[in-house]
Specification:
alpha+beta, 4 helices, 4 strands
Length: about 110
């Protein structure tokens, strides 16, 4: 399975890094980052292991799945032999607000 981390997810990762380092420590960031990388490696082997996020299922967007990695959430989509990472965010963050902000940034 090929993994593509979309630009939006890379941006999320940078924001997450800044947040964790500012509010916790560089060690906490490194631990979180290691868990995120491990979760993505696991998805390469088991791409359908994640669940459909409730927020997206309500919108009939069932092609998206999520895995929880520590305190973080990875939202992805599987298309044929490619796994697209769309969002990497703190799991305590409200997904609906994040999606709204992202849509407004695109417009």
């Amino acid at each position: 399975m090929k993994v593509v981390i979309l630009e939006s997810a890379e941006h999320d990762l940078k924001e997450l890094r800044t947040y964790i380092i500012r509010n916790f420590s560089i060690e906490t960031w490194q631990n979180s980052y290691d868990k995120i990388k491990a979760a993505i490696r696991n998805l390469k082997t088991f791409p359908h292991a994640g669940s459909i996020p409730d927020e997206l299922e309500k919108l009939s967007l069932t092609q998206y799945r999520q895995v929880i990695s520590g305190m973080n959430r990875i939202i992805y989509e599987v298309r044929q032999d490619t796994l697209y990472i769309h969002i990497i965010t703190d799991s305590r963050r409200e997904l609906k607000s994040l999606l709204t902000r992202r849509l407004l940034r695109v417009i």
